[in-house]
Design brief:
Helix content: 55-70%
Distance between the termini: 69 Å
Number of strands: 2
Shape: elongated
Number of helices: 8
Order of helices and strands: HHHHHHHHEE
Radius of gyration: 24 Å
Largest sheet: 2 strands, antiparallel
Oligomer: single chain
């Protein structure tokens, strides 16, 4: 029997008019959906490609686009409340994704699919590659480590997520100005300097 994962998910549209409340609600909906799917996969008594690998792949496909659009607003919105909500949503989604990737019960179901050599042979090559790739991703997330080592890794990954979000927020909100002399901008066409504002610093005109 050949099993093919065939489902096309329509892409989400970028909505610049989303309110902070709508952004928070969307993030909560995505994290709840993620937990629901992972809980169902973890509860499988007889894991197969159809009830384990396929649902996880569809979840990633369906949620990835919307999650990216929610996070993108922090980089482009002119409303600070929207930018802040987007930043917090990205943090919540990243932490939820990290937690899901480190669930040993879900990895147990995925691993059982890989351990079923006969069932694996019956899969289409693409589906078999997907199952192997998914198992590899879980191992890279620390599922092959001891409980103590996983706890340390989880703490480190969580801190990296927090620092990454904080860095992104700081760069987005920065309003500093860098000034350059005409010599430092050598190579730019004369038209670039026409009617461009300048400041005089220590007697030197800078752009």
């Amino acid at each position: 029997m050949v099993t093919r994962l065939q489902q096309v998910v329509k892409g989400a549209a970028l909505n610049f008019r989303r309110t902070p409340a709508e952004i928070s609600a969307a993030a909560a909906r995505l994290t709840a959906r993620e937990k629901q799917v992972h809980d169902k996969v973890a509860a499988q008594t007889q894991p197969t490609f159809a009830n384990t690998i396929a649902p996880l792949a569809r979840l990633e496909n369906a949620s990835g686009g919307e999650a990216a659009l929610i996070s993108f607003l922090q980089n482009v919105s002119t409303d600070k409340q929207v930018r802040d909500a987007s930043s917090e949503a990205e943090k919540a989604l990243a932490l939820s994704r990290m937690t899901s990737q480190m669930r040993s019960d879900v990895y147990g179901s995925v691993k059982k699919v890989l351990d079923d050599t006969q069932g694996l042979k019956e899969l289409a090559p693409e589906d078999r590659a997907l199952a192997e790739s998914m198992a590899r991703q879980y191992r890279r997330s620390g599922l092959g480590l001891s409980a103590d080592q996983r706890a340390k890794l989880e703490h480190t990954r969580k801190r990296l997520i927090e620092l990454g979000i904080e860095f992104s927020r700081n760069t987005n909100e920065a309003d500093g100005v860098e000034l350059f002399t005409r010599a430092e901008l050598a190579g730019l066409p004369d038209s670039y300097f026409c009617e461009r504002a300048t400041e005089t610093v220590d007697g030197v005109e800078k752009f």
